[in-house]
Amino acid sequence: MSDLTDAPKSRMTFFLTSKAPARPSSLQILTGFAGGMVSISILAFMAGHYHVPLIMAPFGATCVLLYALPESPLAQPRSVIGGHLLSTFVGLAVFHLIGHGVWETGLAVGLAIGLMQFTRTIHAPASADPIVVFLASCPGWSFLFAPVFLGSIILVAIAFVVNNIGAGKNWPKYWW
After folding, report:
1. What are the HPP transmembrane region domain coordinates in residue numbering (predicted)?
2. CB within 8 A of 84, min separation 6: which ones?
């Protein structure tokens, strides 16, 4: 009986004593700030200047991975570009071929996650791309090119510059 009464105490102790990860270095924090600001600002400027859609909400989350966790497999070009393209394609395909209801939205996200795993292009922010497609009431197949493909390429290009500033930097770990 004492095991049952001790369980809440042990859970509470875990939550109070578990440690957060170490704070990143000041340089890494500055890189995250500058990389995210520059990336999204460039996409927004280009979108306005050239009248081409180049920005969508999941790109903000992509910047977190590119600049705060650049060593992560989820932050490598293969995952950024491939994940966004695949997930958006799935969203568009489900919208056009099956429909655009509640279950179809869930199906598209689930399929996107499964296909990213299968193709080794996992990029967490890309799992939101089918939702973007459905919320926009299906922006059309050209959405794959702009903002998805062009935006992903621009983000990776900027990350290549930002993440390689300084001695000993070597990003990405692999391209494709």
Report:
1. 23-172
2. 58, 62, 123, 125, 126, 129, 148, 149, 151, 152
pLDDT of residue 10: 67
Choose between 169 and 2: higher pLDDT.
Answer: 169
Domain extents in the chain: 25-162
H runs (alpha helix) in the chain: 2-17, 26-50, 58-68, 77-97, 102-119, 129-135, 150-162
Token pair 């794959």: residue: 144
Long-range contacts (CB closer than 8 Å, 24 or more residues apart) made by 50-55: 52/146, 52/147, 52/150, 53/139, 53/143, 53/146, 53/147, 54/146, 54/147, 54/150, 54/151, 54/154, 55/147, 55/151
**Average pLDDT of the residues in 128-150:** 95
40: its two tokens: 């999204």
Query: Closest Cα partner for 67 from 39, 93, 92?
Result: 39
3-state secondary structure of 22: coil
Q: Token digits for 64?
A: 């977190």
Q: Report the sign of the C-alpha dihedral through residues 113, 84, 69, 34, in that order.
A: negative
Per-residue confidence band for 7, with pLDDT thresholds at 50, 70 and 90: low
pTM of the shown model: 0.89
